[in-house]
Amino acid sequence: MDQRLSALARWVDQLPVAVDQPIAKEDFVPVSDDASFRRYFRCTKLSESWVFMDAPPEKEPLTDFLRIGRALADAGQAVPRILAEEAALGFLALTDLGDRQLLSELRVESARADALRVQAVDQLASLVTVNCDVPTYSEAKLIEELWLFPDWYLSQYLGLDLSENFSELWVRVCEFLVDSALAQPQGFVHRDYHSRNLMVIQDGNLGLLDFQDAVVGPVSYDLVSLLRDCYVECDAELETELVTRHHKALSAFLSDLGDLQTYRKRYELMGLQRHLKCAGIFARLYLRDGKEGYLQDIPRVLRYIMDVLNKYSELEGFANWLGPKLPADVLEIAL
């Protein structure tokens, strides 16, 4: 029995949007799958279309979502407005941004898809300046995320017995990537700025979802999350144009950004850190949480990883170690 959904129904039944009918858990329809413990629903018996978040307080407290959401709204970003809240229970009622994920638009290669990517990149220039009390993307956090790759993908998913030789290579990779990340200017980072968290809404804006894990961190992080998305690929020529566009926009107010060549390298190394983390997370979602749908995205993530490993001489040793360890069917995609 879904006790939390029953509790959500009782809470919604008390809201002013409810109609003169009893509301039960059967009246709630899932809105989307989520990689966390959060769930989202619409209720079929309401007079208006609201989205309800169910976030178990012991696993997904609402404090960060509420604080960051209000800061983003104050900064003019299109985020769901909070219509009602019961933080102690982990329930929120939010305005409905619809069902048009950017992902569905980008999967149809067209001039419109390219224009939406441009729009999303331009939105980042204002996002990076959002003023909000969020944690720093620290050296310790960056390293902790990197270790998801050997711990979950290599060891638990592939079943590899990692040797001392691996540890030496891996520590050097971590140091190289973290040094590059921390050398960048730091700003507000959404941290999941990709096609499943950007909604194409009626007024033409791009709405932001899942911003509760935001940090102050490297300014290229959200850009590489968007252009080297785990769920859909961007044409290489357009990617180059948009990295250049973003660099130009940030250069207007970040004097320590560096030249375009430096920024491009830092962008690619930031992407490597993110994709190593994502491969580990996708393996964990399957092994620990039974969410096998994310497995289909691992080959794309591995290709991003191998492309960057093979590009930079500082990473050659790890590229030579990792390549032969990947499954043959993945190698055909990733290399």
Write up what this structure looks like:
- The chain is α+β, with helices and mostly antiparallel strands and 335 residues long.
- It is 47% helix and 12% strand.
- The protein is built from 13 helices and 9 strands.
- Helix 4 (111-127) packs parallel to helix 9 and helix 11 packs across helix 13.
Could you give the topology of this structure?
Blueprint: H1 3-12, E1 28-32, E2 39-43, E3 50-54, H2 63-74, E4 82-86, E5 91-95, H3 102-106, H4 111-127, H5 139-146, H6 148-157, H7 164-183, E6 186-189, E7 198-200, E8 206-208, E9 215-218, H8 221-227, H9 236-251, H10 260-287, H11 298-309, H12 316-322, H13 328-334
Helix pairs in contact: 4-8, 4-9, 5-7, 6-10, 7-10, 8-10, 9-10, 10-11, 11-13
Labels describing this entry:
335 residues; alpha+beta; Phosphorylase Kinase, domain 1; Aminoglycoside 3'-phosphotransferase, Chain: A, domain 2; 2 domains; five-stranded antiparallel β-sheet; two-stranded antiparallel ribbon; 13 helices; 9 strands
Spans where pLDDT lies below 50 across 5 or more residues: none
Helix content: 40-55%
CATH architecture of the largest domain: Alpha-Beta Complex
What proportion strand? Answer: 5-15%
CATH topology value of the largest domain: Aminoglycoside 3'-phosphotransferase, Chain: A, domain 2
| Name of the CATH homologous superfamily of the largest domain | Aminoglycoside phosphotransferase (APH), C-terminal lobe
Distance between the termini: 46 Å
- Report the CATH C-level class of the largest domain: Alpha Beta
Sheet/helix structural class: alpha+beta
The H-and-E topology, N to C, reads as HEEEHEEHHHHHEEEEHHHHHH
- Describe the biggest sheet? 5 strands, antiparallel
Overall number of structural domains: 2
Across the major sheet, the strand order is 1-2-3-5-4
